Amino acid sequence: MKTKTTPTIPEEFKITETINQDTWLVNGVLEKWEGKTSEVYSSISSTEDGKPTLLGTIPYLGEPEANRALLAAADAFGKGKGLWPTMKVADRVLCMERFVKQMEKQRDAVVKLLMWEIGKTLNDSRKEFDRTVEYIYDTIEEYKQLDRDSAKFTKHDGIHAHIRRGPLGIVLCLGPYNYPLNETFALLIPALIMGNTAIFKPAKHGVLLMTPLLEAFRSSFPKGVVNIVYGRGREVAAPIMQSGRIDVLALIGNSRSAVALQDHHPYKNRLRLVLGLEAKNPAVILPDADMDLTINECISGTLSFNGQRCTALKVLYVHEEVADTFNKRFAERVDALKFGNPWEEGVMLTPLPEPGKPEYIKELIDDALAKGAKIINKKGGKMMGNYIYPAVLYPVTKDMRVYEEEQFGPVIPIMPFDDIEQPAADVADSSYGQQVSLFGENVHNLAPLIDTLVNLVCRVNLNSSCQRGPDVYPFTGRKDSAAGTLSVHDALRSFSIRTFVASKDNDYNNRILNDLLDSKASNFISTDYIL
Ligand code: G3H
């Protein structure tokens, strides 16, 4: 692959050859694909002409391959009899450890692809990788703890019970482009460790970065436990859902895709949902807020990874008393942010991975301008390559599209308010309910707001921007923002169900139970545990 590389790309990050991903993982085999492929481009240019960079190709699979992946996952679950769902906890842990150890060796390759495929800065790409590895180790520890807690019998009303958490069955796992590694693995890893089998389709952008990990998936788990498919959702995920054999839909993305996929499932009552969806998290800036701190938090809250985070601050409510000060200082700070390629020192704003995204953001800006808002920063709205410099819009009103739509990109709407009740009332009326950020210090103003907001969203961040982490904390949302809860602890519960063996307390049954324990014939009825 010949490209005229610009001298600004450090040697270690140059694309010297394309990755032609010509296998897919099915039933424990990395099967060669000789059919149609799709090209994967980066919106970052490696030539002086500014054109997108070809990174490689991926298989373009269709319904027959989707059905084979489904069959492999179903066989691996084996109607509850499969090796994986019946495996001893210690053995499942070994498989997961084998996987994560191999994964760690691929850090540089994955980080480089994170930068090229989705434009994430070098620092943030490294963080995404390291955070994911840590998440896997924490999940293993949490799983051992869960096992320790269930390695016992209880007795009530003359009935002995041995209660554990068991797998749900087959999981269809779909991750998002903004965290193609972390968010996807935050679904897949707990789903697997609990004994489920999975079909996993990488995100549209951030797909080649799975290539360095395919061998680790293949060699760490029994055949059919993880199956990795490529292609378009409607051609691959839809038939899998239509089969009615999926027990859990695990998706981080938007509610439209989640609803469309659920609609394909013929038996909705059998389908468990673990969803992380869109949000429109507001910051509420009260008159006594510490301005330096608030501006810092609002900059990272609105513009980390160009605002392409479900947890990003997507609308700022600023009290009229401080609006002038806040707007002026905030707008200057936005204009001082550095735009560049992900590996550049000090860069915060980077090319957007989705073609057409700058045009969409421009539409939101034009709509707001037509309805009375102004761009209050000098660089706001300037287009360059696949980027649009963040526009700070003020004053934004509820009839504007940027108030209603989740922009998921670099545009910042600011709404003035004078009645402290107003922002909370808007959160109550919104379709979303993930998090809010509250800036201020007078406890008599903060307390009633906190007490209301905790009933409307699932995390109130005091004097700090919204975020998912630390991953041990519950990550969820109300209304169109989520279904189920994710965290190291909660995800193990989201991907499992309580299931138990019960027997009446009498000599006959007790002798059998003791025999089961002594013989170690059952992996379920066992009071052994790993320290
Ligand atoms: O896109 C949504 C992510 O879960 C956000 O995670 O707050 O750690 O960036 P983060």
Structure description:
This protein has 531 residues and is an alpha/beta fold. The chain has a 7-stranded mixed beta sheet, with helices on both faces. Strands 10-9-8-11-12-24 form a 6-stranded mixed beta sheet, with helices on both faces. Strands 1-5-4 form a 3-stranded mixed beta sheet, with helices on one face. Strand 11, helix 9 (255-264) and strand 12 form a beta-alpha-beta unit. Helix 3 runs antiparallel to helix 5 (122-150) and helix 3 packs antiparallel against helix 7 (214-220). The longest helix has 29 residues, at 122-150. The radius of gyration is 25 Å and the shape is globular. Residues 1-5 have low confidence and may be disordered. It binds glyceraldehyde-3-phosphate (G3H). Glyceraldehyde-3-phosphate binds at residues 178-179, 183, 309-311, 467-469.
Bound molecules: glyceraldehyde-3-phosphate
**Roughly what percent helix?**
25-40%
Share of residues in strands:
15-25%
Specify the overall morphology: globular
Give the C-alpha Rg.
25 Å
| Uncertain residue ranges | 1-5
Biggest sheet strand line-up = 15-18-19-14-13-21-22
What layout of secondary structure does this protein have?
Layout: E1 19-20, E2 23-26, E3 29-32, E4 37-42, E5 53-59, H1 63-77, H2 83-86, H3 89-104, H4 107-118, H5 122-150, E6 154-156, E7 159-167, E8 170-174, H6 182-193, E9 197-201, H7 214-220, E10 226-228, H8 233-242, E11 248-252, H9 255-264, E12 272-276, E13 281-285, H10 291-303, E14 313-319, H11 320-335, H12 357-370, E15 374-375, E16 383-384, E17 387-388, E18 391-394, H13 401-404, E19 411-417, H14 421-429, E20 432-433, E21 435-439, H15 443-453, E22 459-462, E23 478-479, E24 482-483, H16 488-494, E25 496-504, H17 507-519
Helix pairs in contact: 1-8, 3-5, 3-7, 4-5, 5-6, 6-16, 10-11
